[in-house]
Design a protein that fits this description.
5 helices
Length: 95
Amino acid sequence: MRTRPPTHPGSILRRHYLEPLNLTVSELAKSLGVSRKTLSKIVNEHGSISPDMALRLAKAFSTTPQLWLNLQQNYDLWHVSQKSQEWKAVETLAV
């Protein structure tokens, strides 16, 4: 397992897309067809990338939805694995 947490997808969105393109959260939200509040939560690392948002971001920035969903999944899994240790007690079952 990684020792350093994965970067939140909102941080990647901010640093690699919003800032270089000089886009504001409001401008991008309008372009994506979502509320400024929804996008702001993601950019400020308080919200998650949903499949719908992944499709919108992929279309806007010529990426794939899988990129955004994978970033979110890696972030979520790492944080859950750090918060709870109970999952480590699960025994592997022979199939």
